[in-house]
Amino acid sequence: MSQQSFSNYSVKVFFDESGKNQSRPHLMGGILIPNTYYNTTAIQELNNIIKHSKIHWTDYKGHSKTRQQIWKILCTVLEKEHLLSMNVISYNQSKIEENSKHLKETYPDIADQTIFMKFPERIVYGLIRGHGTHLHLDADIYIEDDSTYHNTSYDLRDQLLKQLNIQSIYRGERFTINNTDYLPKQTEVGIEITDILLGIVRSVLRNDLSASRSSKEKNKFIISLLNANPKFHQFLKKVKYYEWDNSHELINIDFENYLNIFIGSNLA
User: Fold this and answer.
1) Which percentage of the chain shows pLDDT scores above 70?
2) Residue 14 β-bridge partners
3) Per residue in 151-196, pLDDT tens?
4) Distance in angstroms (rounded) separating the CA atoms of residues 177 and 9
5) How far is CA 138 from CA 9, 30, 94, 190, in A?
6) In b/e form, how buried is each residue of 203-212, taking b as 16+ CB within 10 angstroms?
7) Rounded distance, CA 153 to CA 159, Å?
8) Which is a Pfam family this sequence falls into (predicted)?
9) Is-contact 153 117, C-beta < 8 A?
10) CA atoms of 164 and 181, how far apart (whole Å)
């Protein structure tokens, strides 16, 4: 009997957080982008923008140059939005800290270990699993660098590499994690697009209708791009969104419900 052959498919997964050390929601998210698409000239040329400009959705207040840069990055990367996937988890940090109080004396960083050893793995696993028996995924994972991840108890880079490959074997999945690495901001457009899109998801969830300039400009930008670019709208509708709030499992929520409420609340 001849050995079954598989098609290899190489992808990059970018991971980031949004809302850490801020009021809820606290989000983690990942975006999967095929290597063949990510390496196209159009996307790689965006690195010229991000390497010479500090672009962070949290700081956006409507500045025209930043607006144009974010607009260009989103429209370029989402030109083939059907090739991209995004997973997001919203978690209740205060519940985790409350549940870990009885272990704090023995394990001082148990809350952080819980957060960073569980949720990132679920996010990435959800992106790379279930692609079929005739396909093998080769994945590289890139994490926006943060000193929080460099904990000797749970270094996130090493944890993801080991645990996801174990999951692949244990669950009979057809993927291999070849490499995980930390990347600082202003080095790769994949990190920037993840930061921007995760920030936009958070803005939609918060739906802040206050008079603050920051919230007004963010909402205005999102609505304008939704109206101007159907591919942006389509991508947001298909975001796989989960919530954890002191339950024994993640709850899958239709993100389009949040998106429709956001659009309805921000009609001109």
Assistant:
1) 94
2) 31, 142
3) 767 789 999 999 999 999 999 999 999 999 999 999 999 999 999 9
4) 12
5) 6, 16, 36, 17
6) bbbbbeeeee
7) 10
8) DUF3800
9) no
10) 14
